[in-house]
Design goal:
By secondary structure, the chain is of the alpha/beta class. The protein is 25% helix and 27% strand. It has 8 helices and 15 strands. Strands 3, 4, 5, 6, 7, 14 and 15 form a 7-stranded mixed β-sheet that branches. It has a 6-stranded parallel β-sheet with strand order 10-9-8-11-12-13, sandwiched between helices. It has a two-stranded antiparallel ribbon with strand order 1-2. Strand 11, helix 5 and strand 12 form a beta-alpha-beta unit. It is globular.
């Protein structure tokens, strides 16, 4: 295939080797040199600027049963932002030099490859991470929140902080529950009507909230979310529950006649559509994004980024690795 404008010949796509994180076992991270990835048909090569450490990445870090080591270089990073440096064959929707975000795997590396159709262009200089923003938009869409609905968010970390900022402006107010004082303070700063510790939830709130978003991904937040959901209400599971089995209060779910909604999506096209929707809101609302990225590390310090995400010290919301 001839090289068109802005298209880098395949033999010039890389310098030879790039650095990438590799998890060889639980809490065992090293930096390795790997051959430059090459963009295939319909793909682009991206110089990765930033990769967020997601709560779902912690399963690999902790050594949850079923994880097979060593992971591929760059895994499990997937919350990426970067610049297009080469185009594979049949790519006509992107140009070299554009800043992109969206769906890309093995992002804890200097270079990565993604399908062009899974990426969205953003302005140069942004720090926006598209994948978690799309996740949050999908949570809002699947929750079916409507005008005047009251919303509760149980577990208030990075995903929850995005979700509440993407809610329709005509909701009937929202509250947050979190064990962490700084998370409750963040919720109040973002507009919560109230924020409660799990040990001090007012009795009047039980069985009273029309839409409850469980965003903690642990048994305790699932239980509290169930107790808050009103008769005929909706319990939205946004937390990542992939580290083991959970017990659900089926008696309560049945008796209260609630709808239980899995807010996770697995279709790339749905993610991309949600990202476009979220970016439209970012362009028209005052949405806090940069302030949520509280900690930054180099690729060599990526193990520290995982440790912070695991331990969540005071003040931590989101950790970013910059290869």
């Amino acid at each position: 295939m001839a090289n068109g404008p802005g298209r880098t010949p395949p033999q010039m796509q890389g310098s030879d080797h790039v650095r990438a994180l590799r998890l060889r076992g639980p809490r065992a991270a090293t930096i390795v040199d790997v051959p430059d990835p090459l963009a295939g048909a319909g793909e682009v090569l991206v110089r990765i600027r930033s990769c967020g450490v997601c709560g779902s990445d912690l399963n690999a870090w902790r050594g949850v049963a079923g994880i097979q080591y060593p992971l591929a270089p760059g895994a499990p990073g997937h919350e990426t932002l970067g610049d297009v440096v080469a185009l594979g064959p049949d790519v006509n929707t992107l140009r070299v030099g554009q800043t992109v975000t969206g769906l890309m795997w093995n992002g804890l590396a200097e270079l990565g490859v993604a399908r062009a159709e899974d990426l969205v262009t953003v302005r140069d200089g942004t720090s926006l991470l598209g994948e978690p923003l799309a996740c949050a938009m999908n949570v809002v869409r699947r929750s079916g929140v409507g005008a005047h609905d009251r919303v509760a968010v149980v577990g208030f970390g990075y995903l929850a902080a995005l979700v509440v900022q993407l809610l329709p402006t005509d909701v009937g107010g929202w509250i947050a529950l979190s064990r962490r004082e700084d998370s409750r303070s963040l919720a109040l700063r973002l507009g919560a009507d109230a924020a409660y510790d799990l040990s001090s939830v007012p009795a009047k709130l039980w069985d009273s909230v029309g839409v409850v978003v469980e965003a903690g991904g642990v048994q305790q937040t699932l239980d509290f979310a169930t107790w808050l959901t009103a008769y005929g209400g909706r319990l939205v599971i946004a937390g990542y529950h992939a580290d083991g089995q959970r017990t659900v209060n089926m008696q309560s779910w049945n008796w209260k006649g609630i709808d239980v909604i899995n807010a996770h999506e697995r279709q790339p096209a749905t993610y991309v559509r949600a990202l476009h929707e979220a970016l439209a809101l970012v362009a028209t609302r005052r949405i806090e994004l940069d302030s949520l990225h509280t900690h930054t590390w180099s690729l060599e310090q990526a193990a520290e980024a995982f440790r912070f995400a695991d331990e969540r010290p005071p003040g931590f919301v989101k950790g970013i690795v910059r290869p």
